[in-house]
Amino acid sequence: MTDSSISPSHPAGLSRALDNFLTRHRIGVWRVVVTFVLASLLFGHSRWDGTWVSPLLLTLGMLGVSLATVGRLWCALYISGRKNNTLVTSGPYSLCRHPLYVCNLLGILGLGAMTESLAVTAVLALAFALMYPAVIRTEDRFLASAFPEFAEYARRTPAFFPRLSLYRGESTWTVHVSSFQRNIADSVWFLGLSVVVESFDLFHDAGVLRAVVTLA
After folding, report:
1. Which parts pass through the membrane?
2. Model pLDDT for residues 120-166, shown as the tens digit of each residue
3. How many domains are there within the chain?
4. Does a structural domain hold residue 134?
């Protein structure tokens, strides 16, 4: 049975339809999740504030956000201007097939840690776990249909968890500057959100905001 012959009522067809739905609407879902997180920070304060756990979470959070930002910029150098017309298999894409999403997870967990709330971090991690496997499957299907060499690339390269022994760089690489510049904004938004998260904490400490709930 070919892909085009799979009926929407077939289990594989239903799974593909769900994958496509989550892929199309992931930005909207993230907006809802981020709104929930910001509301939690507006009305809640961490139970760990003032304990040794607080600076630990903040440090881990800053590390995660920093790695995510640098990693996304590294990916953007390789993928900018090539996303739909070239199968990029070197640099970060030699380590795994979806390094951008690895960076997203690092940034999401980093932001969660910076809220100093394990509950908020768990919500962010759950949202990622529910959506991004579907996004990865959808993108893999597109790449398989667009590039005959993808099958060999997928055979040797893990989808998500990087394998450092596979790293292969380039001595020279042409960067699509205009496309890379557009991708810079997409790569640094974790930094912007981290500033917002810390601002809520500062406002609570200064008494500008009053917490009505304690965040675990």
Report:
1. 27-47, 50-70, 116-136
2. 999 999 999 999 999 999 999 999 999 999 999 999 999 999 999 99
3. 1
4. yes
